[in-house]
Amino acid sequence: RLDELEFETLTIDQHGPIAVLTVNRPRALNALNAETLGEIGMVAEMIAESAEIGALIVTGAGDKAFVAGADISELAGLEGVYGGRDMALLGQDVMTQLSNLPIPVIAAIGGYALGGGLELALACDLRVASPRARLGLPEVSLGLLPGFGGTQRLARLIGKGRALDLMLTARQVSAEEALGLGLVNYVADDPLAKARELAEQMLKHGPLALSLVKEAVRRGLDTTLEAGMEVEADLFGMAFATADFREGTSAFLAKRKPNFKGE
Ligand code: CO8
């Protein structure tokens, strides 16, 4: 079981098929250093190979922050072009691993989600924020740009104009404004509870279908509409060949609840 493993900078809890990854460096507002990134990558790798975990929630320890960014004290010690580039590549790889997981991944944002912290949330499929949350990409205020996929994922999620507004001004937005921008999906007083509720709702459905939806959207956004339609048709064909599809349709016709097996 995942929750039997020990990590230095994060904790993992498992509630049935739902895993909760909590970034746990509250004294640095859960800032991501190379060790945390490595540990998140390890967890993603294990979840990708686990048949037991059906959904992942990513959150931060304490009330104050989800994750307040990359660890600025570590960044300050990196030397030259290559140090920075390597750090960006490490962070990008980890975010892509999370984003490519075949299960729903939900960020529960209780406080600050800034810089690399917002990029972590952007690598998740959905974002739920507390009314107290503050979100932003303040990298230009440090003479940097987002380096963990933020320039790419934010513009794809909320559009070029809105993404450039946030990145060029470095301003923080409230949860309410983030909701209006489409940056978060839900605002809830208890974002972790809301994320669990959403995960449970998703887990009623066929797990293969969930993973195919994610794959179709992800691959489609990286290509033309025409090529995306082909991806959709191919994946639809794959869904058609599953036992889950037969179970889902026969359960509907027999007016009973489906019992999906992920096959
Ligand atoms: N890194 C390291 N330590 C941090 C970070 C961080 N990102 N954020 C907060 N901390 C630490 C503070 O230094 C402080 O430590 P100490 O108690 O030892 O002084 C502790 O956490 C508490 O923070 P504050 O006292 O500052 O708390 P406040 O309530 O006064 O302020 C803020 C909260 C507004 C969130 C403030 O802490 C802040 O502005 N933090 C930095 C936010 C930021 O700029 N984040 C972006 C970082 S850059 C980034 O993420 C780039 C990602 C891409 C990298 C690409 C690789 C090359």
TrEMBL record:
This protein's record includes keyword Lyase: yes
Domain of life, source organism: Bacteria
Organism annotation: Deinococcus reticulitermitis
Alphabetical list of CDD domains matching this protein: crotonase-like
Family according to the record: Belongs to the enoyl-CoA hydratase/isomerase family.
SUPFAM superfamilies reported for this sequence: ClpP/crotonase
Keyword terms: Lyase
One Pfam family, short name: ECH_1
GO terms (BP aspect): fatty acid beta-oxidation
A molecular function GO annotation: hydro-lyase activity
Name of the protein: Enoyl-CoA hydratase
Family annotation (Gene3D superfamilies): 2-enoyl-CoA Hydratase, Chain A, domain 1, Lyase 2-enoyl-coa Hydratase, Chain A, domain 2
